[in-house]
Amino acid sequence: MVALVSRTGRQHQRYNLKGCRQVVGCIPYRYDDEDQLEVLVISSQKNHKMLFPKGGWEIDESMEEAALRETLEEAGVTGEVKCKLGKWSFKSKRYDTFYEGYMFSLHVEDELESWAESHVRTRQWMTVKDAREICQHWWMKEALDVLTQRLSMSELEDDNVEEEDNVDNKEDDEDSPLEDEDSPLEDEDSPLEDEDLSPRCMLS
After folding, report:
1. Cβ distance 103 to 24 under 8 Å?
2. Phi, psi dihedrals of residue 8, rounded to the nearest 5°
3. Where does the record place Acidic residues bias (predicted)?
4. Torsion-angle region of residue 96: left (phi > 0), alpha (psi -120 to 50) or beta?
5. Is 158 exposed, middle or buried (0-12, 13-18, 19+ CB in 10 A)?
6. Separation CA 37–CA 28 (nearest Å)
7. Which tens digits make up the pLDDT trace of 12-44?
C-alpha cells in the first residue's frame, strides 16, 4: 500500500558531526520509445522552480530508503536505486546554513497518478540538456552530469561485452571439427525417437 501523506517535522532528522542536516534525493530516469534518456524534474513548493526530488534523511531508515521515500512523496514514482552519485555540501539561502546532500540514480519502473505532494508540485519528463538548464541547484546539476557519465560508461561496457561474445562465438565456429565423412552410418534398423523434430521457439 502506497502512503499518500508525506513525513513532516525534523525531530528524527540526521545530522553529520559538524551539525549539518543530511538530505538525500534521486534523479529519476527512463528511456523513451526511441531509446533516448529522459529525467524527471519536479517543481519546488515555494517558488515553483524546477529541481530533483530530495529531502531529509531520518534516523529510522537507510540512505537508500530515504531516497526512495522522498522520490515517492515528491515525484510519485518508484523504481530501482542503481547507484550513489555523490555527496555535496551546499548552503541553504532560506535557512542560511550548510547541508550535506547525497544523490542517487533511480531507474523508474512505475509512475503513480496520485501521490502525496501532487497537489503542491508538478512533474515533467525532459531531456538531460533541458533538465540541466532548468534545475535551480548547482549541486544537482553536477549529480546529473555524474549520472550521464555513469550511464554512458555502462552502455559502452555492454557494447564491449556484446562484441567479445560475438568474437568468441565466431572463434568457436571456426574451431569446431568437421564431421568425418567416412564415419559409419547409423544402424538403419535402430528405432527413431518418437518426438516432434520440427524447430521450436524457446521463451526464457
Report:
1. yes
2. -130, 165
3. 156-196
4. left
5. exposed
6. 11
7. 899 999 999 999 999 999 999 999 999 999 999
Least confident of 40-49, 95-104, 161-170: 161-170
Helices (H), the chain: 63-75, 128-134, 138-175
Burial class (CB in 10 A: 0-12, 13-18, 19+), 61: middle
Return the sign of the alpha-carbon dihedral for residues 166, 169, 174, 179: negative
Strand partners, 78: 110
- Residue among 40, 22, 197 nearest 112 (CA): 40
Residues near 7 by beta carbon (within 8 Å), at least 6 away in sequence:
58, 69, 73
Going through the chain in order, the beta strands assigned E by DSSP cover 21-31, 37-43, 50-51, 54-56, 77-92, 97-111, 123-126
Residue 101, classified by CB atoms within 10 Å of its CB into exposed (0-12), middle (13-18) or buried (19+), is: buried
C-alpha cell at 186: 547409423
- pTM, rounded to two decimals: 0.75
Q: Determine the Cα–Cα distance for residues 41 and 126; give it in Å rounded to an integer.
A: 8
- Decide which of 184 and 80 is more confident: 80
Nearest by Cα to 105 from 128, 86, 82, 75: 82
Q: What is the mean pLDDT of the chain?
A: 83
Look at residue 111 and tell me whether its pLDDT is greater than 50.
yes
